[in-house]
Amino acid sequence: MDSLPPLQTAFLFIIPLLLLYGVVSQHRRKLPYPPGPRGLPMIGNMLMMDQFTHRGLTNLARKYGGLFHMKLGFSHVVSVSCPEIAKQVLQVQDHIFSNRPATIAASYLSYDRADMAFADYGPFWRQMRKLGVTKLVSRKQTESWASVRVEVDSMVKAVAANTGKAVNIGELIFTLTMNITYRAAFGSKNDGQEFSKLLGAFNLADFVPGVRWIDPQGINKRLVKARQSLDMFIDKVIDDHMQSKIEVNGCDETTTDLVDDLLAFYKEAANATGNEDLHKPIQLTKDNIKAMIMNVMFGVTETVASSIEWALTELMKNPDELVRAQQELASVVGLNRPVKEIDLEKLTFLKCTLKETLRLHPPIPVVHHVTYGDTEVGGYNIPAKTRVMINIWALGRDPNSWEDPERFRPSRILDDGAPDFKGNNFEFIPFGSGRRSCPGMNLGFYALEMTVAHLLHCFNWELPDGMNPSELDMSDVFGLTAPRSSRLVLIPSSRLLCPIV
Ligand code: HEM
Fold this sequence. Notes:
By secondary structure, this protein is an alpha+beta fold. The protein has a single domain, classed as CATH 1.10.630.10. The protein contains 16 helices and 9 strands. Strand 1 and strand 2 (75-80) form a beta hairpin. The longest helix has 37 residues, at 281-317. The chain is globular, with a radius of gyration of 25 Å. Protoporphyrin IX containing FE (HEM) binds next to helix 5, helix 12 and helix 16.
């Protein structure tokens, strides 16, 4: 039989495909949006923006379901808080849901998304992520892991010098994680907590373009101040790096850190593309480096610190679990020496305690993604550019997935078939899942384990002023992260039979 000419063959395939596309998009157009609270004309659900916290969204989900829809001005917003839908969004249709919202705060604080955490999914993000992983969080990057050990040791010494006194342990923990970050990547200090509040805030101006200049919530002024402080800090870090390069005459140093590598990466990019702007690298290079530093500041400082503080708080509130964790340390390590890295893998109950903490207090309670194109989830229409809020906090407390979900019970993690946090069990995703999941998971959990193991093994802990465990404040503040609303204060006493220092 004669074969058809190429043009006809092409039409034979293309026409059915076009018809199929037409039917699918027609079908999708007919699909409803997910259910949700009714909005007002033009402004949609803007008057509800104060409810867009992990708790507020959980309450709304009780009424409207695990996938609900709202409008903010002309923008579509959906909230996800059931495991089946989270799986669709983060795994099955990951490619459509992997962009990040370009909010005013994220764009401004990340130097126009010149980073890994706020860049849209694509080649630039891939490059930045590769660099961050290889130079900072990979197990081969021994400086990062060593920095955890060095800083934990110095924190333990600081606590040991204050036994018998009320110690603001929450403050010490934040200092510890800040020191780990800067030791790992750059070697000095800056305050990141204001950044978290700004990044987590729902800003009217993100949804109503004209409002940006009026700034009804006073966010612009705070953004400028926060970025100026980062600018000053990081200018010095970059200048120091450039200076040390000049001093060694730019030749191959064997140890480079994240800043050196970012500088080198941009020089290479400039040479490869011949792009004029890249040949004037200072502005562009500094912006990218600053943005990456901002990512690391949050990645490590806020998330790890709030997990450590919550772990200690839950253990103080549940003395039986504290006793069990300390007994395990005594039997695995013995009271004649401090904990070593090699002990960690045998400390099963400690691991469960930390996982249970991450279930109840995921440091990033709600993660934000944006759809790249139109799609359909659970029989509902999700248009392109929809803002998707995945409520990790609600997933970890879902009564359909967890028995007695509000209770701190580490041993549940030992149950047969208990979920793990690696990103395949969607009722427990403190590090997210899929392409945008946390690249610092192993380093973050290691810092958490090392710190809590040392604090529980070296010291016994008491609440100050005869406080009862049930009186402990368990409230949190909502930003990009959700730390305790007040810092934890405890009285340490020595526990080891050998000197700590
Ligand atoms: C207890 C510790 C930590 C927790 C619970 C945590 C959690 C998370 C979560 C939930 C996300 C968002 C995932 C998503 O959008 O789907 C994330 C992203 C990220 N984390 Fe972590 N994190 C931790 C530690 C770290 C550490 C130590 C670093 C190291 C620098 C880090 C760096 C990042 C970065 C850069 C992103 C953005 C990734 C991207 O968008 O491609 N995190 N993390």
